[in-house]
Amino acid sequence: MQTDDPTMSVSSALVWACRRDLYLAARSRAELAVVLLFFLLVASLFPLAVSPDPTLLRAIAPGIAWVAALLATLLGLPRLFAADWADGTLEQILLAPAPLPALIAGKVLAHWLVTGLPLLLLAPLAGLQFGLAADAIGILVASLALGTPILSWLGATTAALTLGARGGASLLALLVLPLAVPVLIFGAGAVESFAAGIGAEAHLSLLGAGLILVWVFGPFAAALAVRIAHE
Amino acid sequence: MMTTGSFWFQFASPARFYPLAGRMIPWFGGAAVLLSLVGLYIGFFVAPTDWQQGESYRIIFIHVPAAWMAMFVYLVMAFWAALSLVLNTRLSAMMAQALAPTGAMFAFVSLWTGAFWGRPTWGTYWVWDARLTSTLILLFLYLGFIALRASIDDPRRADRACALLALVGAVNVPIIYFSVQWWNTLHQGASVSLTAAPKMAETMLAGMLVMGLAAWAYTIAAALHRVRSIILEREAHARWTRELVR
Predict the structure, then answer these.
(1) Taking a C-beta distance cutoff of 8 angstroms, is the pair B81, B96 a contact?
(2) By three-state DSSP, how is residue B54 classified?
(3) Could you tell me if residue A102 is inside a domain?
(4) Of A26, A140, B60, B62, which has the fewest Cβ atoms less than 10 A away?
């Protein structure tokens, strides 16, 4: 941290928190791999459960990819604050002479970089499994790129709220999944309307608007949730 | 201004509000019973049979007020939640906590009665229609609120965590509503609108509005009753509660 100036600026706080969480993630790569494997595994279950018919699979592919992405994000959420909360690091972050929303934003950014970004890179693989066309895969990746950060922010706020609460992961799912419904609809809808020939611009624009909204309000809501967890 | 402010703020104290709520419950409870008797009488004996849907349409006298209240109670809950975060008043959080089960009950009732109405009218209990789906999600939001409340032991922390959750939910409710609407719509348009002339018989409308008022009165009475129990539970250490229950 800086030595001469007692308070950190917003950008340096964000970069510091993000870099710290990326270091920690790099030290536990197995956990990261589990989330990605989970995504591919859930996507592979659907042909087994529904039917191997290519036309049916192509029709439901965007929905499956999005549901799998949603569940994979959910799986990674408890890691965001739980370990820092358990060993007291989060309390130190709260007391640090730096803007808390910026520190939280750094943590969420790091979380997205280690779970959301790899999902984007894996999504084409799932798309090929389901026989999606190349341009439809492009739209799927674009919708995931805009949508998964929204999921990270919704998840960060609720994960902070459930710190120390009984119920853990299942409680988190009950809180996050209803809130994530619009992201799911617009994300999967983008690929479907593209495939139907209507074009995906409307859905992608709405996802983009949501992305801007969560980056404006998310840091403050999540910071408030972290403060509440330490009362 | 100052005097009216302090007049209202004195009821933010649970000790002052407890007897006031006790005096209001019989009035709102009585109104709920009377209004629902009148509303059901209008609904079942006065309102004419619908030429298209036959007698099965009469379920709207329960269904529509329940759906109204399910949405409205969430907003009221979010209002109390915001107040508890801003003013840090315990009673506001208790009000939000007391409203949640009633809201969840109304969401459930509107889904259940809707299913019974849908079977003869649409030929199916459930369709993935916009309004049905958004009411279902609303029910999940209520249940999440109740579950979060139940899983945090420290009541003050639970108050604030639930308040934030209710606010995030309230911001999300319109987004969910419109996203689901663009996604799929089979449900008929709103039956009652303030801008267009009502499309239904006057007596049907009257029955529905009376039932709506009954649901309103019931909600107030039930929430006040529940908030009294919550006050007793949480203020059990205070002297006035011990003197009260002795």
Answers:
(1) yes
(2) strand
(3) yes
(4) A26
Number of domains present in the structure of chain B: 1
Q: How far is A227 from chain B (nearest CA, A)?
A: 10
pLDDT tens digits for range B180-221:
777 765 455 555 554 554 556 778 888 889 999 999 999 999
CB contact under 8 A, B179 and A186: yes
Residue A182 and residue B161: Cβ atoms within 8 Å?
Answer: no
Q: Are B53 and B121 in contact (CB under 8 A)?
A: yes
> B108 is in which domain, residue-wise?
24-188+198-245
What's the CA gap between A120 and A125, in Å, rounded?
10
Task: Examine the predicted complex and report whether its ipTM is higher than 0.95.
Answer: no
Q: What is the pLDDT of residues A151-210, one digit of tens each?
A: 999 999 999 999 878 877 788 989 999 999 889 988 888 888 888 778 788 889 999 999
- B143 domain residue, yes or no: yes
On whether any CB of chain B is under 8 Å from the CB of A173, the answer is no
User: What's the full length of chain B, in residues?
Assistant: 246
Q: Which residues in chain A have their CB less than 8 angstroms from residue B154's CB?
A: 231
| Contact by Cβ (8 Å): B166, B78 | yes
What proportion of chain A, given as a percentage, has pLDDT over 90? 30
Task: Tell whether A4 is covered by a domain.
Answer: no
Q: CB of A181 within 8 Å of any CB in chain B?
A: yes
**Cβ contact B168–A224 (<8 Å):** no
The count of CB pairs under 8 A between chains A and B is 76
Q: Phi and psi (nearest 5°) for B50?
A: -75, 135
